[in-house]
C-alpha cells in the first residue's frame, strides 16, 4: 500500500531511515527498562534513583516520538511494535525481579554509554544525506550524555 | 535476593500479583501498538485519529505505572521488559508499515475489547483476595470501555 | 439504525442501562433546578448560597456527562432531551419566581436526600451485573452526600 | 413575595424581560440537545463533532447564565426549570437514540439558524428600552453565527 | 502645553469627554468607599460582604482605568486627583467609623443605583457623538447592574 | 462552487461583507508593517518601541482573524492573500531598510489615524444592516484608538 | 444539641461512624508524627527522607479531611481534638529529639503497616453497611500501601 | 545522640528554643481545633465560617512548620508529637460534637486572643537573644491578629 | 456603636493607630496621583514611565489595604474616604492636564521622598508600642525607597 | 542611514542575508495563505483542517520573526512589507473564494514541499559562511517537513 | 559623576552601605562556589546534593540582587565585579576539580556558618542607623541558617 | 581523585573541554558585569536598560550552567570559582561606581561582540572533535548575537 512521500532522494532517505529506526528501537527499549528499574529498585538510595529513572524514561519517550515522526516525515514507516523491540534491542538490560540501587546505577551508565556510542556513528553517517536528521541525533546524544554523567557521578562504591 | 515485604497473606498476594502482571503486559503492549498506529496511520481521518491514539497511549502508560507500582507494593516484582512483553502479549496488533485509518479504528476496537474481557475476569478473581487491587482494575476497565466506545462509534464504514 | 456494541451481556447491559438513564435524568434535573435557585434566591444569605449552588450545578453537570458516556460505552443510547427530563424527573423542585434563602436550603436538602435514596438502590442493583457502573454510582453518592451535609448543616432556623 | 427592584421603568423592564426569558429557554434547550448529540453521535466524523458539540454546549451554558442573571438584575425572575424548558422550547431537536454524524451537523445548522433568527428580532425590540440588554443579545448572536458557520462549512455531503 | 490629538471632531470630543470625566469620578469614588466599607464593616455577615466589596472595588478600579485611558485617547486629559474626586463626587457614601453589615448592603444598593442612573443618561448622550464611548459605558452599566442586583437580593431585613 | 449560507438578507450581507473585507486588508497590512518596523527600528528608544509594536501586531492579527471569520459566518469568503493585500492596502507604510525610532512613532500615529477614520465610516454604514458587525467594528476602533494615543503621547520631539 | 441528619439507617450509621472515627485518629496521628520526623531527622539521607515525609503528611492530612467530612455527612460528629488523638492513637511513634534516618525509615514502615492492617479490617466491616465509606477506605489503603512500599524498598541496611 | 549544631551561644539558644517550642504547640493545637470546628460547625453561617476556618488552619500549619524548622536550625529539636500537644496545649478549645456557628466565632476570637498574648511576651523575650526568631514571631502575631479581627468583626450577636 | 476590640493597651493602640491612619492617607493619595500621572503623561519616555507608574500604584494600593486592615485589627477604624484623603493629603501632587515625562519623574522622586521621611518618623514612634506595626512600616519604607531610587536614577536631565 | 553593525565579514553576511530574506518571504507568504485557507475551507473535514492550518500559521509566524531578527542581528535589514511579499512570493497559493477541504490538503502539501526544497538549498549555501544561520534553517526545515507529512498522510482520496 | 541621592543622613548611609557591600560579596561568592560544587560533585549522594546546592545558589542570587538594589536605593553604588569578588571574598571555598559528596556537605556547612557569623555582626551594626537594612539582613540570616541546618543534619559520617 | 568517565576519546575530550571552559568563564563574567551595570546604571533610559540587562544576565547564567554540565558530562571538571573568573576573564567590563546609560549600551555591545568572536573560533575548533559541543556553542552564539543587535540598535547617540 502507498503511504507518505519523501522529501529526500532515495539513497539519502535510506540512510536517514536506518539511523532513525535504529535509534527508535534503542529509545523505546530504554524507556521500558528504565521503567523496569523504576519499579524494581531496592536499597537506601531507592527514592532518589526511582525519581531519576523517570527522567530517563520521560526523555526516551519524548525523543522516541520525535524520531519516529521524523521517519514518517521522510516517508519511512517506523516500527516500534513489541516484537520488533524485543528482536532488535541489543543494549544491556536488567535481570528479572528486585534489583539493588548500586546495580541500577551501573546498569544505566552502561546502557546509556552503549546507546551514545551507536548514536555517534549515526551522527557521522547522516551528516551528508540529511543534516536535519543529524541535528536531531546530535540533540539526543547531548541529552543522553548529560543523563549518563549524572548516573556516572553517583556510581559509588564503584566496585560493589 | 530479598525485596519488599507484602501486606497481604500469601495466597491473596499470588492472585493479586498474577492479575496485576497480566494487566501490566496488556497495558504496555497497548501503549506500544498505540504509538505504532499513531505514527503509521494514513487516510483522510489521519489527524483526528492520530490525536485520539495519543490519549489511548497516555492512558495505557499512566495505568501501567500504577499497576506495576501496586504489584511492588504487594511485594510482587513487576516485569515489563521488552522480551517479557513480546512473549506474553496476546492482544491483536498492527502489521508492519503504513496502515489505513479505517483499519486502525477496527484494530483499536478489537484490541480494547479483548483487553476489557480479560480485565473483567481479573475483577472477579481479585474481589475476595484484595479489594484494593480490584478497585484499581475496575477503574482501568471503565476508562478502557470509554475509549473503546469512542472508536466503536466512529467505526464507519463498518465493512470496509 | 445500528449503533455502539456493548461489552456486557444483554441482561447486565439492561440493568446497568436503566440505572444510568435514571441517574442521568436526576442529575440533569438537579443541574437545572440548582441554576434556577442560583438565579432566583433572595435573602441575607444570598451570596453564600448563590456560590454554593454553583458547586452543586458543577457537580451535577460533570457527573451527568460521565454517566451518559458510560451508558454509551455500554451500548445504551442515553436520553437527556428537554422533554425526557421534564417527563421523568420526580425529585422536588422550586416553584416559579423569587425564593427565600431559607427555602432554598431546605429544598436542596430534600432534593439531594431523595436523589441519594434512589442512588443507593441502584448501587445494590448494579453490584452483580456491572461493578464498573456500581463504582461510578458509589462515587456520585459520596459526593452528593457531602454536598447534602453542607446544606443540612446550615439548615437553620429549621422551622422557618 | 417581593424580590429584586429594577433599574428600568416598567415598560422597558417588560420588553427586556421577555427577550431575556425567551433567550434563556433557547440557550438551555440548546445546551441539552447539544449534549444529547454529543453522547449519541455515531459515524466516521464522531470525534471531531463530539468535541465541537461541547463548544456549543459550553457557549450555551455560559450565555444562559449571563442572560438569566441579567434578568434578575432587571428585577425579572428568570425561569429555567425542566418543565418550563420542555414547554417553551420550539427549536429543532434530535430524535431518540443513536444519530449519524451527518444528521447531527444538519440539525445543529438548523437549530442555530432558528435561534439566530429569533435573537435578531429581540435585538431590534430591545434597542430602545434597554441598550445594555441589546448589547448582550448582539454578543450572543455573533457567537452563535460563528458556530453556525463552522457547522455549515462542514455540512457535506449536503443531500445525504 | 500641547498634548494628545483627538480622533474626534470638537463637539463630539467635548460630549464624550464630559461623559468620561463624570464616570471617572464616580468610579474612583466608588473604589474608595468600597474599600472604606471593606475595612470598617462589622456584623454576622462580615466575611461574605467583605469579600463581595472587593469585587466592587476591583470592578471600579479596572473600569476607571479604561475610562481614563479612553479620555486620553480622545485628547481629553482625565482628572482623578484626590481634590477633584472629593469636590465632584456626589453619590452616597459611608459615615466615619465602624458600620453594620446591613447598613453597608443598603449603602451599596443606593450608591450603585445612583451611579447607574447617571450612566444611563450618558449612554443616551454619547450615542451620536461617539458610539465607541457609548459601548464602553453600556458595558460598565451592565456590570454595575449585576453587582447592584447581588446586593439588592441580600438586602434583608429591608427596614433595619 | 457553493459555500456557506448567510443568516443575513442579501443587501445587508453585501454592506457588512464590504466593511469586513476592507477592515481585513487594513488589519493584515497593519500586522505586516508593524513587524517590519519591529525588525528595522534603530535609535535610543529601540527597546521600548520594539516591544510596543508587537502589541500592535498582536492586536491586528487577532482582530483580522475575528473579522475574517465574521465574513465567513455571513457567507462572504474573506480574501487575505498576499496579492490582495498588496493591491488593496492604502494606509501609510515604512520605506525599505533601517528606520529611526522617531520616524516609527510618527508613522504608527499616521497609519492608525487613517485606519480609524475608515473604521468610523464603516461603523456608520453597518449600523442598520448588521448591528453584530457594527459591534465588532466598534470594539476594533476603541482598541486602535487606545494604541494610537500611546504612540501620539510619546511622539516627541514633534518636528524631528 | 441536634446536628446533621444521616442518610443511613442507624446500625449502618454506627458501623461506618466507628470506622471513620478510628481512621481519622490514625491519619491525624500519622500527620503529626510524620512532621515530627520531618523536623528531627539527621543522617546522610536527611534531604531525601525529609521530602518524602512531607508526602506522607500531605496524604494523611488530605485523607483526614475527607474522612472527617464523610463522618459529618453521615450525621456522625468527628473528633480530632488534641486530647482525643493523644488518648486514642495506638500506632508506633518516634521518641523525643533527634532521630537517625535509618530509624525513621523503619518507623514509617512499621507505622504504615499497622495502619494498613486496621484499615483492611474496616474495609471488611463496612462492605455491607455502607459501600461509599468502604470505597473511601479502599482508596486510603491503596495510597498508604504505596507509600509503605517506598519506605520498605529503601529500608537498608535492614538490621541497623 | 548528637544532632544539629547551633549558630547561637547557649543562653540565647535556650531562650529562643523555649519561645519556638511554646509557639509550636500553640500553632499545632490551633490547627487541630480549627479543623475540629471546620467539621462540626452547624448553623446558618456554616459555609462562610467553614471556609474561614480553613484559612486559620492553613496559617497555623504553615507557621508551625516554619517555627519547628527554625528550632531545628538553632540546634533545638522541636516536639510536636500528639502526647506533647495534648499535655502542653492550654488555649481554649471546642467541646465534643456539633457546635453552633456563633459559638465557633466566639471560640476562635478567644483562642487567637490568648495565643497573641503569649506571642507578644515571646517577642519581648527574644529581642535581645535572637532578632531572627523575634522577626518570625512578629510576623506570626501580625497574621493572627488579622485573623482574630475578622472573627471579632463578625462576632454577632455578641451575647448569644 | 461598638466595633472591634483591640489586642493592644490603650496608649499603644493610639500611637499605632495614628501612624497607620497617616500612612493610609499617604498611600491612597499616592495611588491616585500615580494613576493621574499614568494617564496624563506625554513625552518620548511615555511608555516606560507609564508602565513604571503602575508599579507605584500597585504597591501603594496593596500596602494601603494591609495598613488599613492592620488598623482594624488593632480596633482603630481606618478612614480612606475621598473627603478625608483630600483634606489630609499633604505630599506633592501633579497639576491638572497633560504633564511632561521629565516633570513626572521629578514629581515622583519628590513625593516618594516626602512619604519616606514621614514613614521613618513613624518607625521610630511605633518601635516601643507595637513592633508588629513597626515591622509593617519598615517593609513599606524599604519598598518605597527602592521605587524612589528607580525614578531618581532616571531623573535626567536634572535641571529641566 | 547607518544601522546595525554585522558580526560577520562581508561575503558571509551577504550569503546569510540572502538566505534569510528569501526564507522570510516564504514564511510570511505561508502564514497569509494558511490563514486564507483557514477561513475559506469547506467540506466534511472542515474542523480538523481548520485547526491544523492554524498550527502551520503559528509555526510560520514564529519562525518568520526569528528569521527576520537574525537578519537584523547580522546587519541586514529584513523586508516583510506587503508589496515585497506579493512581488517575491513564488510558492503555490489558493485561488479566491471558498475552497474544498481536499484541495486545501493538496495545496498545503505542494506549498510546503516547494518551501522545503528551497530551504535545503539554503542549508547547503550557508554551511560555510554562517553555521548559526544554517542551524536555524535546519530547524525550520525539520518542522515544515513534519507538518508536510501530516497533510500528506491525510491527502486522500489522492486523485480527487 | 553624580548618581543617586540618599534618603539617609551621611553616617547612617556609610554604615548601611558597608554592611550591604560586605553582604553582597559574600552572597555572590556563595552563588559561584555553590554552582562550582553543583557541577563537580561526585559520590553516591550526587543527585540529592546537586539539587540542594541549586537552592543555595538560587537563594544567594536572589538576595544578592535585593542587597545590591538596597545599596543603590541608599545612594551607595554596589560593586559585584569579578575582580572585586575575587579580592574581597574570604569565606571557605572548594578546591579545583571533582569533589566528594561528603566534602561538599562539610564545605557548605562551614561556608554558611562563616557567612552567618558576619551577618549577625551587621545586624547589630545597622540596628540604629537603618532598621530597613537591618530587617533585610535578618531575613537573609534566617534563610541561610535554615539552609545551613539542612546540610548540617546530613553531615554524616562526621569525621570522613 | 577519580571522577566522571568521558564518552569522547582523549584528544577530542581536550579540545571540547578547552572550548567549554573558556566559554564558561566568559558567560559567568558576563553575568556578573551584567548585574553590575543593572545596579549602577543612571540616566533617562535607566528602566529600559535595567530590564534589558537582566535578560543578558538570565541568558548568561542559563548557558553557563549548560556549558559547565556539558563539560562534566565529557569528564572535564569545569572551573567557575571567583578566583578563576577574575584571572581568566578578558572581555571588557565596567569601571567602579555609577555609570551613564549610554556608556552601558556601548559597553554591552563591545563585550558581547568580543564574546561572539571567541565563540566563532570555538565553533570551528569543535566541529570535528565533538559536534554535540559545537551545536551548543552555535546556539549560544545565535542568542548572544541577537542580544548584541538589540543593544547596537539602540546605541545612540553613537559618539557620546
Automatic annotation (TrEMBL), chains A, B, C, D, E, F, G, H, I, J, K, L:
Single GO MF descriptor: ferric iron binding
InterPro entries in alphabetical order: DPS_DNA-bd, Ferritin-like, Ferritin-like_SF, Ferritin_DPS_dom
Domain Ferritin/DPS: 18-153
Family of the protein in this entry: Belongs to the Dps family.
Protein name: DNA starvation/stationary phase protection protein
Organism, scientific name: Streptomyces chartreusis
